[in-house]
Amino acid sequence: MGIRFSVLASGSTGNAMVVATAENKVLIDAGLSAKKVDQLLKEKDMSASELDAILVTHEHADHIKGLGAMARKYDLPVYANEKTWAALDKQIGEIAEDKRCVMDTGDFRNFGELRVESYGISHDAAEPVGYCFYEGDQKLSLATDLGYMSSKVKEQIRDSDVLVLESNHDIEMLRMGKYPWNIKRRILSDLGHLSNEAAGIGLCDVMTSKTKRVYLAHLSRDHNIMDLARLTVNNMVEDRLSADDHRAKLMDTYYDRATEWDQLDEE
């Protein structure tokens, strides 16, 4: 079957994604209530009891809101690096010692045929990471909560079959928005979030002929619109690539519902 996945929710109100192979399933982040994550998994014809593990990107509330409850209810192993664990301990309650799994940044873990690699990103958290998922020659990459797309991040996610990429805000909408300036400055900084423009520019460096689809993710509900994100990213790509260069299909994500299952080997 290869790899398939669904972005269960994406945005400032909560983030979660499920990645599955024929035999194994992992949840990345649980940034909604455990009840809501359960509901979204059921909509994908899955139960949380089928999960092999929960992988954590970082400790911000929109990524770990339901983490503790999910881990305890279903007796699930939780994987995070040491610094993230130290930050999580204050927020998620008691986790059984044998379920507290340390996965250092840059490490691999195998869940059956599914191979998972973490990599460091730039964000204002203890030690935030993204993840790449492999089975055979298939590659799925998750890259959100990026202050900027460094050369190391580009190298890590390049040549993915499918990429889930942050396209958080429109710069002018953010500048004109209601947030206080210190919050705007944080979002625009190298430890903040990737703009539509930055997502489009970075995409040109990581998209190859192998890349089929790119999901635009973690959109701000106050400072972005999916149609605008898609248009801006597409314009950045069109401006920088030649007519003969490959272009991946841009896909939507949602804060309030899951995406359809995406099978990586499908065109």
TrEMBL record:
Domain Metallo-beta-lactamase: 13-218
Catalytic function, reaction form: 3',5'-cyclic CMP + H2O = CMP + H(+); 3',5'-cyclic UMP + H2O = UMP + H(+)
Pfam families for this protein: Lactamase_B_2 (PF12706)
InterPro entries, per the entry: Metallo-B-lactamas (IPR001279), RibonucZ/Hydroxyglut_hydro (IPR036866), WalJ/YycJ-like (IPR052533)
Record-annotated membrane-spanning stretches: none
Superkingdom as given in the UniProt entry: Bacteria
Its job: Counteracts the endogenous Pycsar antiviral defense system. Phosphodiesterase that enables metal-dependent hydrolysis of host cyclic nucleotide Pycsar defense signals such as cCMP and cUMP.
Name of this chain's protein: MBL fold metallo-hydrolase
